[in-house]
Structure formats: structure tokens, C-alpha cells
Amino acid sequence: xxxxxxxxxxxxxxxxxxxTGDMDANDLKKVDDVKRVRTYDFxxxxxxxxxxxxSIGRIHENFARLLTTLFSSQLRTYVNISVxxxxxxxxxxxxxxxxxxxxxxxxxxxxxxxxxxxEVNPNIAYGMLDRLLGGRGDSINKIESLTEIETIxxxxxxxxxxxxxxxxxxxxxxxxxxxEDLEINPQFLQMVxxxxxxxVVSLNTAIGELSGMINICIPHIVxxxxxxxxxxxxxxQNMTKDKDPEAAKKLSENLEQVTVEAxxxxxxxxxxxxxxxxxxxxDIIALNQSIDxxxxxxxxxxxxxxxxxxxxxxxxxVQVLEEIKGGxxx
Length: 330
Fold this sequence. Notes:
Protein name: Flagellar motor switch protein FliM
Shape: extended
CATH topology of the largest domain: Chemotaxis protein chec
GO biological process, one term: positive chemotaxis
CATH class of the largest domain: Alpha Beta
Main location: other
Number of domains: 3
Radius of gyration: 32 Å
Mean pLDDT: 81
Helix content: 25-40%
Low-confidence stretches: none
Distance between the termini: 70 Å
Order of helices and strands: HHHEHEEHHHEEEHHHEHEEE
Pfam families: FliM, FliMN_C
Keywords: Bacterial flagellum, Cell membrane, Cell projection, Chemotaxis, Cilium, Flagellar rotation, Flagellum, Membrane
Number of strands: 10
CATH architecture of the largest domain: 3-Layer(aba) Sandwich
Strand content: 25-35%
Structural class: alpha+beta
């Protein structure tokens, strides 16, 4: 352990205490003689700094948002997923921490070495399966085995997760994730040695009335080539590089070519269904628009301008008088 460095103020206070007799030099010697020992568990080797763990957390916060969107569209129900924690632990501890029978999705993340595990709590996994089969999303406690149809449905659902995984990791590196296997027994998954350090990202997951955890296990071998990129400096440099003026100019030019619908509203009226059914030729419907008030021009159904009607080259047209701030009508 490195020696503690005292500030000038602390040194002055110490010398003053020794001079006045408030502190005995022998007492200080006794304190120095006490060995300072910190317990270190070699089975829990910390290979990632706190800064790197935070970077991994940021990546998977984006992944959680992408998963929320994906599962909401696939299951057509309320879904909320957020990062609960990011920890580095031995692989053996991760295997012992998850249920003995659960849903384990194994992803190949080429060109990186190793594989990533997406572990889905049975409570959540079977709620998803029930929704896919047209149910209300109730959890079914029968995960001892999966039928062939259930396996196909689960595989198809979690195969789509690969796209979200690729997008979330794109800020760090380019990977081509692919669902390699779906397993329900953790004992069959010996990806790395039991003492190998893995990063476990735990996601709080709520689907409909159900709640549970989704855990992402990332072995050290996967992240090892990217360790230099898991730093604040790298992220700051990336943010600077992303500000490409040429790309922004091209995006603006493309947006200018987008076609939108513009409509000038002459007025509106509310009538009963009976009056509507009784309408005949030459009947008059009074609008709520006064002739001395400007009309409203809507762009894609959003009120944008006050205008006045007229003609331009023998065509009906409107002249813009004023912008409607915030798209709110007066």
C-alpha cells in the first residue's frame, strides 16, 4: 500500500500538537508499527476499473431501451427494462446465482472471441411465451422441458435480440451477434473456466403484470480487445469525431427534399347526424370562421401559420401573415 502524503496544513497541525504535548511521539510510533493488511481474494480478480464498468453500463442502458422497444412490438403489451447493476464476478459465481433451470441464450459475437450469455428468468420467459401463443402473459411453472414448438418460438424471439445487441455495441465496436444455442440447464454451459472473470449486467424487467431479471454474462475474453476503448477519454474522442459537418449538411439537404402536406382551413362546423342526413342541394352550412379573421395553415395536421386567402396567377392561394409559435392555435 502506498504511503499516505500529508498536506502542509496537516504537517503544521501535527508539529504543533507535538510541541504543546497534546500528542506523544511514542504513540505515533506504535501506530506505524501496526501492519495495515487488506484482504484480497484471488478468486475474485478485478480486471476492470470502475470507469470501464461504468462504460459497460452505459452501453447496456442503450441495449435495455432497445429491448424495451423490441419486446413491446413483439409481445404487444407493456414492457419496461432498465439496468439494475453491473458487476465483475467469477464465472462460477454467476452460474451459482441463477436458477438451476432457466432460459439461457448463447450468442456468438464475431469477430470477437468468446460468447455472451443472455439469461432470462423463467418467470419472464414463460410470460413471453404465453403472450406469443395469444395468452394474457401469465407465467407457467413448467420449465423442466420445452416442447419443439415452444423452443422454436423462443428461439425466433431471442434471435431478434441480436439486432439490438449489435446496435447497442456499435458505439464501442462492430460485431455480428448470432444466436447459437438456447439451453435451460446452466450446468451444460461451460464457456470459460470457473475462476474466469465475467461482467454481469442485470436488467430489471417488467412485462405486463410480471417482473423479473434478465442477466447478461460477458466473459473477460470478449472484452479484452476492447479494454482501451472502455474509458472516458475514448468516449469523449468519439463524441468529437461524430460531429461531422459534411454529414450534417447532407442530412439537412435530404430533409429539405421531404414532401409534406399543407392545408388552409377555411372553417369548421358542428352539426347533428340528422342535419347531415337532411342536407340537400343549395343548403348552407355556417362555418365558425369570420371573414375578417385569418385562416390557419396546417402542415401535416399541425397548425403552423396564420394566412389570408387570395389568388396568384388565377389560382387559389394564401399569403402567410404570421407564424403560430409552438403549433398552438390562438
